[in-house]
UniProtKB/TrEMBL annotation:
Transmembrane segments: 12-36, 48-66, 78-96, 108-128, 135-154, 166-186, 198-219, 231-250, 270-289, 309-327, 334-354, 487-508
Alphabetical keyword list: Cell membrane, Membrane, Transmembrane, Transmembrane helix, Transport
Organism listed in the record: Lentilactobacillus rapi
Name by which UniProt lists this protein: MFS transporter
GO cellular component: plasma membrane
The keyword Membrane appears for this protein: yes
CDD domains cross-referenced by the UniProt entry: MFS_MMR_MDR_like
Length: 524
């Protein structure tokens, strides 16, 4: 095969970067469009929840499957097919006449997004070599980091100026450009498993197991007061875990497994997926809570929130290429560990800054430190994850890193949400007696605030009806303090998660590891 010129390589990276940016952006971009969609479809936020969940759920479930199909039939082919599917689904979503069509379209769109995201890293690794590979993976990592944090800004601007369908329509022209560039400039990889049988049992059990576990977390997030022992929660969780155990057993026995279980025996690889999980559970999950703080409590619009969050996402664009260059000269392991520690300090700074009068002035130092972590770790993680991977494993390594990053985000949103709810409710229980009203009134207000949750409690406390009550000022101070307690606990918990990720990386990751080392070990 004719070797690509430098220009062709960087144009190929542009195509893959466009794909992964669109795929990851659509995980978060819908959030800011929900109020407009509620009015457009004349429905409720509860009914619209599946516009979010359908994408998140199907995206996470199909990441590994799309990675394996890419390894078997050619990563460029599956990437290109995923890109086309994503563009078509985006157009359908923009035209959706009702919620059913939109929910189905989001699920189809998620399959395309999973294919683009899971294969982009492996395609970059096979289209570049030497020092250019580290730089290209660094740039791709910066795109991953920026896309995950850019949803509020891009979504807010589009919805404010062009309406909610624009968040889907915008994918069409950029997607067409990416399709053309991919066809012309992206080099195909060998079909490493073209003579293998499709591991249908592995694909089905992995999909069912992941679906059950992630759907269970979504159910728990929607019903925070349901006990983990409640059959509606524990049934799905236990069932999903059991199916995943069956999946591991199948992969260990089948001749052509979807995932080579031996990959998980490598300490270095385990270290990288721990970092991917910690990044999702800490930084990406926290973004949802930070957005709610800035919009619901401080009072910034979606666009104003997005602009201020550039102090987080903007670092990805600056540090991604820098991290890629430095990764060829210094230890990626210790650069990742150091960057995660910086993020932990940032979260503790955020917790310290939370107060009833908090504004962006107090928040930005912590946000900058979080942004530095995001901007450094993502590109370094991509490069470190590929180290030691055999050529035929690169697609699955890419897919697994994305699975653990997305799974971490889902677990983080639920776990941090439960911590916030607990702190919020505890403060209300301890302080609502201060409004000095009959117990029946106090209990009614408490029930309303608890059922609404921390995100919506502010709306109730500052509603026109509540403003007319003689105890309005006292109630508002209590609600804000309850929310602040919850947010501080969320920030501290995120900091601990990030630091635990750093500890795992320090223990398990290796400074240098080559694919030849893996081949020698596997041959023994």
């Amino acid at each position: 095969m004719k070797k690509q010129t430098k220009t062709q390589q960087w144009i190929a990276l542009t195509a893959m970067g466009l794909g992964v940016f669109m795929g990851l952006l659509d995980v978060t971009v819908v959030n800011v469009a929900l109020p407009t969609m509620v009015r457009g479809f004349k429905t409720t936020f509860t009914d619209l929840q599946w516009v979010l969940n359908a994408y998140t759920l199907i995206y996470a479930v199909t990441l590994m499957i799309m990675s394996k199909l890419g390894d078997m039939y050619g990563r460029k082919k599956i990437f290109l097919g995923s890109l086309i599917l994503f563009v078509v689904a985006s157009a359908i979503n923009g035209m959706a006449p009702n919620l059913l069509i939109l929910d189905i379209g989001r699920g189809v769109q998620a399959i395309g997004g999973a294919g683009m995201t899971s294969l982009s890293m492996a395609l970059v690794a096979s289209n570049f070599d030497g020092k250019d590979r580290g730089l290209a993976l660094g740039i791709l990592g910066s795109i991953i980091g920026a896309s995950a944090a850019s949803g509020p800004l891009i979504g807010g601007y589009l919805v404010e100026h062009f309406g909610w369908p624009s968040i889907f329509y915008v994918n069409v022209p950029f997607g067409i450009i990416a399709v053309i560039l991919t066809l012309i400039y992206v080099r195909e990889t060998p079909s490493y498993g073209k003579n293998h049988k499709i591991d249908l049992a592995g694909m089905i059990t992995s999909a069912i197991g992941l679906f059950a576990v992630i759907y269970d977390l979504i159910v728990k997030e929607s019903h925070p007061h349901w006990s983990w022992l409640d059959a509606r929660v524990s049934g799905l969780l236990v069932g999903g875990v059991l199916v995943m155990i069956v999946f591991v057993f199948i992969e260990a026995k089948v001749g052509d497994p979807m995932i080579d279980i031996k990959m998980f025996k490598r300490p270095h690889f385990l270290g990288t997926i721990i970092i991917a999980f910690a990044l999702g559970a800490g930084i990406y999950a926290y973004n949802a809570f930070l957005t709610a703080l800035m919009q619901n409590y401080i009072g910034y619009s979606a666009v104003q929130t997005g602009v201020r969050q550039l102090t987080i996402s903007g670092w990805s664009l600056v540090l991604g290429p820098v991290a890629g260059i430095l990764s060829s000269r210094f230890s990626k392991k210790w650069m990742i560990v150091g960057s995660m520690v910086i993020g932990g300090i940032g979260f503790f700074a955020m917790a310290y800054a939370i107060s009833p009068t908090v504004s962006f002035v107090e928040l930005w130092p912590g946000m900058v430190l979080m942004g530095i972590t995001n901007g450094m770790v993502n590109p370094l993680l991509n490069t470190a994850g590929m180290e030691g991977a055999l050529p035929q494993e690169m697609g699955m390594v890419s897919g697994l890193l994305n699975v653990f990053r997305q799974f971490g985000t889902t677990v983080g949103v639920v776990g941090l949400g439960l911590i916030q709810d607990a702190q919020y409710e505890t403060h209300l229980n301890n302080h609502l007696h201060l409004i000095q009203m009959p117990a029946k009134v106090v209990n009614g207000i408490k029930d309303a605030l608890v059922n609404a949750g921390p995100f919506s409690g502010h709306t109730i406390a500052f509603s026109t009806r509540m403003q007319q009550m003689p105890f309005a000022s006292t109630l508002q101070k209590i609600v804000i303090a309850a929310y602040d307690n919850g947010m501080a606990a969320v920030a501290i918990s995120s900091g601990v998660l990030v630091l635990l990720g750093a500890l795992g990386a320090a223990i398990l990751m290796r400074n240098r590891i080559a694919s030849q080392d893996i081949e020698l070990k596997q041959d023994k």
